[in-house]
Amino acid sequence: MRFLVPLLLLLAAPATAQVQNWNPEPYAANGGIRFHDDLDFFLNGYTKEEIKAMRKEVNIWRMNFDKMIRATIKDIQAYSEGGNMVPTTHDFTLPDARTGAPYHLEGHRGKLQAFMFGSMSNPPARAQLPFWDALLAKYDTSKVELFVIYGKELHPGDKKSFSKYPVPSSVDQKMGYAKEFAQLTKLPVLVDGLDDKVLTAYGRVPNGAYVVDGQGRLIFRGTWADSRKIEQILDTVLKWEADGRPKLKPQQ
Q1: What whole-number distance in Å separates Cα of residue 146 and Cα of residue 188?
Q2: What is the pLDDT of residues 8-32, one digit of tens each?
Q3: Against a cut of 0.70, is the pTM above it?
Q4: Which domains does the chain have, with CATH numbers?
Q5: Are 51 and 17 in contact (CB under 8 A)?
Q6: Measured distance CA(226)–CA(129) in Å, rounded
């Protein structure tokens, strides 16, 4: 049985483990290109040192262990590995934390769109920001858009690190958190509602990552926003398109 995100911070694996365990080969689906999902809930894409640093930011013993397990195990089974997500694009319109301007997902057809979920009290998401910033600098924004959706607090009010971020009780409070988060990255930061509607539509995965192609089709979903996978996918799609969209084999 897979455990909670805080518990997974106790585990350690080589930094390349997550990529090695994922098949990067694309295949044909729905008239386009598709990639194998990576729905492994183990936090195995970080070094021992990185996991130790994240572990220090949270206090997994703040709540009764058994009670915490019982309260969340059903949620984990339903959501963590894609079991309760319809594997397709779920349209949304969300405000930008910096400007307040609405961003409509389907309004940006013709571009590749890659996004992840994050929050101030989400150590893995914050750890990914510099790597996604590097991707933002790499790609032509006329072809690729990258952004973060500010979702649910993963460790609300936990320890000294996140004591300023309890579960938000108003849209303004959540927007305030998102504005602070936006100071940590160059990526656009969109803000989900208090009902976490978009997060729920995409599987309630706190640091999930998704790629949508130019026709609006979901072509990848991952439990963790590993920038290396996103880069591999974007590079592959851009080359495939530049080569004239050669025929691909169906999923094996």
Answers
A1: 7
A2: 333 333 333 344 578 999 999 988 9
A3: yes
A4: 5-242 (3.40.30.10)
A5: no
A6: 10
